[in-house]
Structure formats: structure tokens, C-alpha cells
Amino acid sequence: MAGFCRIWVPNFGLLARPLYEATTGPETFLTWTAECRTAFDAIKKALMSAPALGLPDMTKPFFLYVHERRGVAAGVLTQPLGSAKRPVAYFSKRLDPTSLGWPACLRAVAATAMLAEEARKLTLGRLLLT
């Protein structure tokens, strides 16, 4: 999800380089180094601050992007800003035990429903596009 918001993070490629290097190559296991931790923390901090994270504008539509993996729903709520979409909130929630037993396509639907409900708190019931 961080890569989705890369246009709002200055020098994202440089910040993420240690993480890219750790996840590419012939190795089957990730070697988590101090440099990886520093890069992860820097990206996390950048994503939670301006200009990466904007304030919601109730006059514009909201877009919710959702990803489900290993029983965790992750999402980013965005709004148009010029030709791009700017994040206004990030969500992450574990699926309930019932949903965990479903096939992947239904887990994705459950993840979308769960995060749409969370996003409604911020959008105050305004139109939400997924």
C-alpha cells in the first residue's frame, strides 16, 4: 500500500531502496536489517504526515482501495487532487473468524465491507466509491 501513495512522499524510491533490495533476489527468506527498519519507519512517518496525508474535503467524492491478505484487510481512503488521488486515511483490520474460513474472493468482499464501514465514520455517510 505504501507504493500506491509514493507520489506524495518525497524521495520515496530512496527511502524504500533497502526494502526493495531485501525483497528481491534469489533468497527465499527476508533478512530484516537495521537499515530495513530505518527505511520502514521513515516511510511510515512520511505517510502519516503532510503532504502525504490530506484532510478530508466533504465536497469531493471518496475512493476506498482495499487489499486482503492472510486474514488482514488493509485499505486507503483517497480523494481526487488534480489528476491524482490523495490519501486521507489508512485502515487495517483483522477479519472475523467466520470470514477467515471463506475462499479468497469472499474474504476480499468481507474486507471491503468491513473497511467501508470504518470509512463511513470519516466520510459521514457521503458517497464512497470502491
Automatic annotation (TrEMBL):
Pfam families per the UniProt record, alphabetical: RT_RNaseH_2
Source organism superkingdom: Eukaryota
Q: Where is the Reverse transcriptase/retrotransposon-derived protein RNase H-like domain?
A: 32-126
**What Gene3D superfamilies does the annotation carry?**
3.10.20.370, 3.30.70.270
Its protein name is Reverse transcriptase/retrotransposon-derived protein RNase H-like domain-containing protein
Q: Which organism is it from?
A: Anolis carolinensis (Green anole)
